[in-house]
């Protein structure tokens, strides 16, 4: 299906370009969110008549996004979550959680603007991209910790969790005792 883009769409094209996309993507995303129009003769004429207004509105939004980007870029946010001893969270941190914490700090960010390829499921520091405008992207740092004190330690670069240390002695198991209980000695049955 051919559509006329009303704004820049990443990995697709610039404003005003006529592109060929799959019908489902056009109906469910581009047309539904007002990012494109069907490429009919009437819509092409309508777009050309409105082009100057659309470009002015796009430029205004971009300037607003750049203003927010200057304040938001590189900012760090702390999320307190419960986790197990190995640092794996009992839940996960999603784009909704990140949007809420950024909005509480005074920035107007929608969860659709936060780019998470997969949810955050462990403690630690994470760099997360935020797309404020199709042409303006910033990065924030998310510090996921169990307590504010632990978050401060992580921010200083300290390791809070020993993830790779697995020791049978920590579990209270002794190989010799386990073998004696099962009646085995040195690999032979008694």
Descriptive tags:
three-stranded antiparallel β-sheet, Ribosomal Protein L9, domain 2, three-stranded mixed β-sheet, elongated, Ribosomal_bL9_bac/chp, 35% helix, Ribosomal Protein L9, domain 1, alpha+beta, 5 helices
Brief summary:
Binds to the 23S rRNA. By secondary structure, this protein is of the alpha+beta class.
Q: Could you characterize the architecture of this molecule?
A:
The chain has 190 residues and is α+β, with helices and mostly antiparallel strands. It has two domains: 2-67, Ribosomal Protein L9, domain 1 (3-Layer(aba) Sandwich), CATH 3.40.5; 76-165, Ribosomal protein L9, C-terminal domain (Ribosomal Protein L9, domain 2). 35% of the residues lie in helices and 25% in strands. It has five helices and ten strands; from the N terminus they run E-E-H-E-H-E-E-H-E-E-E-H-H-E-E. It has a three-stranded antiparallel β-sheet, sandwiched between helices. It has a three-stranded mixed β-sheet with strand order 4-8-7, with helices on both faces. Keywords: Coiled coil, Ribonucleoprotein, Ribosomal protein, RNA-binding, rRNA-binding. This is Large ribosomal subunit protein bL9. InterPro entries: Ribosomal_bL9, Ribosomal_bL9/RNase_H1_N, Ribosomal_bL9_bac/chp, Ribosomal_bL9_C, Ribosomal_bL9_C_sf, Ribosomal_bL9_N, Ribosomal_bL9_N_sf. Binds to the 23S rRNA. It holds the Pfam family Ribosomal_L9_C.
């Amino acid at each position: 299906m051919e559509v006329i883009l009303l704004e820049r769409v990443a990995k697709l094209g610039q404003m005003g370009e006529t592109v060929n996309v799959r019908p489902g993507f056009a109906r469910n995303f581009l047309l539904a969110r007002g990012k494109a129009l069907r490429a009919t003769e009437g819509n092409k004429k309508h777009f050309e008549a409105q082009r100057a207004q659309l470009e002015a509105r796009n430029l205004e939004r971009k300037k607003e996004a750049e203003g927010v980007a200057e304040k938001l870029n590189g900012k760090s946010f702390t999320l307190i979550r419960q986790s197990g001893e190995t640092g794996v969270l009992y839940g996960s941190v999603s784009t909704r959680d990140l949007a809420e914490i950024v909005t509480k700090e005074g920035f107007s960010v929608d969860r659709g603007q936060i780019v998470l390829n997969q949810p955050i499921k462990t403690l630690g520091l994470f760099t997360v991209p935020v797309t404020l405008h199709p042409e303006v992207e910033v990065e924030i740092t998310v510090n996921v910790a169990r307590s504010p004190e632990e978050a401060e330690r992580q921010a200083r670069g300290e390791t809070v969790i020993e993830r790779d240390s697995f020791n049978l002695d920590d579990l209270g198991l002794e190989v010799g005792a386990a073998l004696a209980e099962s009646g085995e000695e040195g690999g032979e049955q008694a």
